[in-house]
Amino acid sequence: MTKTTPAVDLDRRRPEPLWHQAERAIRSRIESGEWPPASQIPAEDRLCDLLGVSRITVRHALKNLEAQGLLRREHGRGTFVRSATVVAGARGLTSFTEEMRALGVSVGSLVLERARVPASTLVAAALEIDEGEEVFLIRRLRIGNDAPVGIQNAHLRADRVPGLFDEELAEGSLYLHLKRRFGIEPVEATELYRVGAVPAEEAKLLGVPEGSPGFIVERVTVDARGPFEFTSSIMRGDRYEIRSTLRL
Fold first, then answer.
1. Entry's PROSITE patterns (predicted)?
2. What's the Cα-to-Cα distance from 126 to each of 95, 136, 219, 224, 230, rounded to whole Å?
3. What's the domain count of the chain?
4. Are residues 146 and 51 both part of a single domain?
5. Interval 218-240 mean pLDDT
6. Measured CA distances, 95 to 27, 100, 101, 177, 230 (Å)
7. Interval 95-107 mean pLDDT
8. Residue 167 Cα distances to 15, 135, 142, 155, 162, angstroms
9. Same-domain check for residues 164 and 228
10. Contact assessment for residue 144 and residue 107, using Cβ atoms and an 8 Å cutoff
11. Which residues share a beta bridge with 216?
């Protein structure tokens, strides 16, 4: 069990709901490092005493923080601070950079490789070109909240992005660069997710043991003229989640 600072009463005179104040107070202790990743936070009754609120208020706050990926509950054990996990909910057609910023995650990128390569059978079929035709490969380590999240290998049709490697690529959104430089605006993308083991080379870059579970993601992105990008990614299974709400 983690140590805690003295109790702090929330301000009932503020228009902000008590559950939101409680949520913010708990988040503050996590972000300050008082309750570090993987540590167990105090039980509900102790949180009630610390924050000066009812059990219902505490449960509301904990439920929200769990939905945001900050906490995890283990039946019979208690509630624990999660490692820095990116939880993606309902998603639109956005780049990784835009998606992470929308989730409040500080995003970074490290270009591992830029090369002209022949299209494999898989890449050629996705981009609707001949096998062996030249494509541009951009391999990047994607970072969220200063920790590795995944590795993305973007294959771009060379005929759609002439001169791409003649200039320095910014660390931000590739889609934004493609729009400004080549007038390419994505209109649709198809993604396939499956679970697989992280290979040795990628495991070293992601900071996980070889064979750790991860998301293997394939994405084909098209604009008004057709497919221009095929991206294959390996995302850390302990740092990236997708959460969906299903309704009738």
1. HTH_GNTR
2. 18, 14, 9, 16, 6
3. 2
4. no
5. 89
6. 27, 9, 10, 11, 13
7. 57
8. 52, 17, 21, 17, 11
9. yes
10. yes
11. 194, 234
